[in-house]
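Researcher: Quick test of sequence recovery. Tokens follow.
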């Protein structure tokens, strides 16, 4: 099993006043995240505003963050899209940069069948050697990756896990029951982390870790050490924060929170 760590932060993409990607601010943010418990930086995910970032910007960001932080943390690249051919092309380029893995969101807007999803992910997985984390977020994509589909895809050698943001604990339970022990199930919603750990999850791909990373890391540690009441207390303490950072479309609130804390990341790009 690859080790991407238990706490992966879905990092925001910092922009300057003209909405240009700012690598200096990205460096400052990356250092802050690693200093506050992040094991792995996910770049160009939903929180990173991937739909509004060009391929060149993504690759520049991947290369820069790998160079600056590759010895301190794992680097995971969001290369998925709703175009299989485009995803293959970008995934190959990202793999050449020596990143630790790829996050592949289910195709959005197209609304493929489950068979279409299987063929989509199979084609990408067969085109690269890098470890792949599937990303199921039907609230964004209008397309759920069913449990049986995830279970089938888990048998592909380099499909290493899934970020599950469906909120469907029955579905996640079935995935946990029917996949190998080394298939990593990550919570894709901060408020679902503790329940998913109980179902056999490995960790979380988090937004809240931008501001409470050490608390989330401690919650996971306490759970895995068998201190369930302490883990529960931390979950309940963090719950209002988990809810507040999604009071508007992500990443609008988390960028605002970081800026208020003095960690400059700029505003989201339009249309957010």
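Model:
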């Amino acid at each position: 099993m690859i080790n991407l760590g238990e706490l992966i932060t879905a990092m925001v993409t910092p922009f300057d006043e003209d909405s240009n990607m700012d690598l200096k601010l990205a460096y400052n943010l990356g250092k802050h995240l690693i200093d506050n418990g992040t094991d792995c930086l996910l770049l160009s995910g939903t929180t990173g505003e991937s739909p509004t970032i060009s391929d060149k910007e993504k690759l520049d960001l991947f290369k820069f963050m790998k160079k600056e932080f590759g010895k301190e943390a794992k680097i995971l690249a969001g290369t998925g899209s709703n175009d299989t051919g485009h995803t293959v092309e970008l995934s190959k380029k990202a793999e050449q940069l020596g990143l630790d893995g790829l996050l592949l969101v289910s195709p959005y807007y197209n609304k493929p069948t489950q068979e279409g999803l299987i063929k989509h992910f199979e084609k990408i997985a067969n085109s690269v050697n890098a470890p792949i984390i599937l990303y199921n977020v039907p609230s964004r994509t209008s397309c759920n990756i069913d449990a049986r589909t995830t279970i089938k895809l888990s048998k592909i050698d380099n499909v290493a896990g899934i970020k599950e943001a469906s909120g469907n604990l029955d579905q996640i339970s079935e995935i946990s029951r029917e996949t190998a022990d080394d298939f990593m199930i990550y919570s894709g919603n901060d408020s679902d982390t503790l329940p998913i750990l109980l179902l056999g999850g490995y960790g979380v791909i988090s937004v809240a870790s931008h501001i409470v990373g050490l608390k989330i890391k401690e919650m996971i540690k306490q759970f895995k050490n068998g201190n369930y009441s302490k883990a529960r207390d931390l979950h309940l303490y963090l719950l209002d924060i988990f809810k507040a950072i999604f009071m508007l479309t992500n990443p609008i609130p988390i960028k605002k929170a970081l800026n208020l804390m003095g960690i400059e990341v700029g505003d989201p790009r339009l249309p957010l």
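The two ends are 37 Å apart (CA to CA).
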